[in-house]
Please model this.
Amino acid sequence: MLVFADADLDKAARAIVGEIAFKSGQYCAAGSRLFVQRSIQDALLERMQAAMDGIRIGAGYAQGSDMGPMISQRQRQRERAQAIVDHSLSEGAQALRGGRARPGPGYFYEPTLLTQATPHMRIAREEIFAPVLTVMAFDDDATPAQVAALANDSHYGLSAKLWARDLGTVHELIGRLQSGQVIVNGGGGEVTLPFDGVKQSGYGRENGHVGLSAYTEIKAVRLGY
Model:
């Protein structure tokens, strides 16, 4: 996720927190890495913390629950997420919210917001698959190419979310981001568009004409005449 100073910060904060809380962060396109322009970092973090404080945690089918538990104990996913968070905290990251399993019954993990992270930390290198959001700032004078380089410094490339109003910045980043899809300012889903990733993300594209081609057999004919 990339947020620039000209973005709608209220809308961006709600969407970013909603993404990481959806399915407790356990879905393929969860935006777990956030790069924000330094001059608006504090303003965005203030909005995001307020949004996180409003998340109601409870059983998945319970009335009023916004975020349910993580997957079963047998998968040990919560323990793995905790190990990644703890390692990054030991290297200097700070937890503004959460950072630990929720005490009491149930396989819950608190919505977590980490700052002061660096690209070499485990939290920024590995797919955590938990409701954990890692924030890293980029300089106000950074070029779109430099920002894209930060985002592309990953083994993964499934989905990128971009928040900015300047269309010049938007279009340049669309071309530079190494990602199977780019969602700009909260653009909605569209079943006619293909979905898959690049690098170590994905197993083949679904949806759209490209997705349908996976269910066909293509015959090549070479005819001499």
Notes: The chain has seven helices and nine strands. The chain has one domain: 2-188. Residues 2-188 form a domain with the Aldehyde Dehydrogenase; Chain A, domain 2 fold (CATH 3.40.309.10).
